[in-house]
Here is the input.
Amino acid sequence: MSKAVSDKKVVKSLIDICLAEGLREVVISPGSRNAPLTLTFNAHDDFECFSVVDERSAGFFALGMAQQTGRPVALVCTSGSALLNYAPAISEAYYQNIPLVVISADRPIEWVDQADGQTIRQAGALDNIVKYSCQLPTSKNASSWYVNRLVSEAFYHCLHKQAGPVHINVPLAEPLYGKTVHPQENQRQIQQILSCNSISNSAMQALGEEWSKYDKILIVLGQAKPNERLQAVIDTLSEMEQVVVLSETISNVKSDNIICGIDKVVSTIVEEESFFYKPSLLITIDGAVVSKMLKTFLRNYQAKAHWHISPSNRHLDTYQQLTASIEAEPVEFFEQLLPNVSSLKSRYRSTWLKRAERSEQHHNEYLAKDGWNDLKAFAGIAQHLPENWQVQWGNSSAVRYAQLFTQLYNKNAFCNRGTSGIDGSVSTAVGAAYITNQPTLLVVGDLSFMYDSNGLWNNYLKANLRIVVINNGGGGIFRFIPGPSDSEELETYFEASHQLNVKPLAEMYGLKYLSANDEVSMNDCLQELFSESERPIILEVKTPAKENAGVLKSYFKRLKEEL
Here is the structure.
């Protein structure tokens, strides 16, 4: 590289290794201590650099891009509390296995705890939520071999076994803005030779024999990226009479034999009939499950055996009945299992499918009733959402309502369910929309939207982005959850009731603004929302806060009724 870059050799070495390891997107938050990093990343034509001021938003913006590409995305910040603002996004990336590389500039180590400005204990500050962390040596005589080894190891942990975030801390002394042209130096790249996680033939044969003992097998799919191979093998398994597959919108798996809308079915099962629905063998994979009703059901009515499939052999015992932790990629495990199993005569699948059919009929009948509420708003989205759109779901109520509508299961669906926080939904969607050419819809609640409105404070909003904000004047889910709904502190401390409107924010950030407050106006707005536009569009949907919880309770009551 012949361009002038930072005169700090360690920065030059670090960034050369990043380039060799395939890093291409770099999200930088302005600051002075990180100037050597900023100058050098920007000097490389091979990097696409983004400037996002708010580090919390920057973290989720990077997460959205890495979520879509599967490639590591770098985050670069100045020293002090800036690094700590990445924590929400880094924790989400850790639990979702999304590759992020945090590169934090720091004060020289001799100034830590010496009352120097913007100086905190940065080394290891994210250790609980990253797969790997290191601090680079920054003396003039620092060994290039050592820097190379540390950074190479960071990229290994970022990408392999299961992807995830890593942290590289870089203490930098003043002056910070000096430039030079360094002599050309080829960076060593350490090749990664990976072992295969396939199960031995004898072990798989034994699992197949155990499988054959059970006439009620339940496969629960948690959050997963769209995967054609997984869809194909699950389709085949779901055709077996003794197999039931439960899927959620963010599982990205759907077919006629798969139960979509778990809560619509599980909520109808009473204790007297639980025997017909509880599994003998439960099979789960990594990835968050949204349905609290399912978790309660499976904890109360336990299987004889529970296999959990995980590439990192995590002893994930969500349902308190784990009997086998199987180290494998789920799709490879199921493909290897398939030749060893066969269909058995059983009523298990037909029992679940009949109940799902009944629930769907009650669902449609209930939605035909008059009235305006959250449920009707989500029905409108399900009805109008075009094919080939990806959907980013906000947390809390938004992703839970999404589970009730079968039409939403054939989309590429994403949500920050690693830690299930309301922070970062907007920023994640903006990053995802930017890095893809696919039209992207974010459906989010009012509190989540307001909390992350800084996600619109950047220059990377593309015309393929659409946002629907369900504004019911606060955290509506707390009116449905037992406990908070009966508390006198509900409106102030749980629901956080407010009278804020989205329109001023839309105008400030240059988005086209639409508004709906009933079913007719929403249907009109949705047609415009999904039409061509030269700029992003945001639709604010206002629903009655106090009525929504009652509607949802009566909805689930209706599902339980006989035909």
Remarks:
- The two ends are 73 Å apart (CA to CA).
- The chain has three domains: 5-180, 201-354, 369-560.
